Amino acid sequence: MGTIVQTFEEVALPHLDAAYNLARWLTRNERDAEDVAQEAYLRAFQHFRSFQGGDARPWLLAIVRNTYYTWIRRNRAPEVRTGFDDGIYAEMPDTSDPEMLLVKEADKQMLRRALEKLPDDFREVIVLREFEELSYKQIADVMQIPLGTVMSRLARARKRLEELLANPRDDKKTEELVVAAL
Predict the structure, then answer these.
(1) Rounded to 5, what percent of the chain is helix, strand, coil?
(2) Which helix (H) or strand (E) holds 176?
(3) What 3-state DSSP class applies to 87?
């Protein structure tokens, strides 16, 4: 028993940050992400004997993804979500140029807001490819979809993200009109 625990730790623990990151983007909530990541690691440990070797990262991220979808069905409706906490993923800033720091921070916040507005399938494929740097094949395995679907979703997600980033004020005007109509 001690050796399976040790082996699991060696294989799975290096990917804890990636697992939490995916859970965080899916849940959009720090505490929920912790719950999902913890439950995913418990499931991964329980099914570790079925792991056939190779790169554990996609295997683990698939478990995180499946755990999230099970968790969301059990705990709440998909549309009830909290916003993304900008401070969670802040990098250590280069304090040599305060003006550049402000520009970088504004860009990060605009990107985060745009990512939050993407549909779940698009946001998920962007996070797996751009943040976790998985290959298309690995993403297909994690999401359990054909490779062509990965490429299509990624292309559409990038296009939509580009549109959101190019016209952030248009989206704000739309939100203001909706609020005014209520």
Answers:
(1) 75, 0, 25
(2) helix 168-181
(3) coil
Residue 12's identity, in one-letter code, is: A
DSSP string covering 88-153: TTPPPP-TT-HHHHHHHHHHHHHHHHHHHHS-HHHHHHHIIIIIS---HHHHHHHHT--HHHHHHH
Long-range pairs of 131-138 with CB within 8 A, sequence gap ≥ 24? 131/21, 131/25, 132/18, 132/21, 132/22, 132/57, 132/61, 134/57, 134/58, 134/61, 138/55, 138/57, 138/58
CATH architecture of 96-182: Orthogonal Bundle (1.10)
Can you give the pTM of this predicted structure? 0.69
- Cα–Cα distance measured from residue 17 to residue 61, given in angstroms and rounded to the nearest whole number: 11
The string of pLDDT tens digits covering residues 56-95 is: 999 999 999 999 999 988 886 544 344 444 444 444 444 5
Q: Are 28 and 79 in contact (CB under 8 A)?
A: no
CATH number of 1-82: 1.10.1740.10
Q: Where are the domains of the chain?
A: 1-82, 96-182
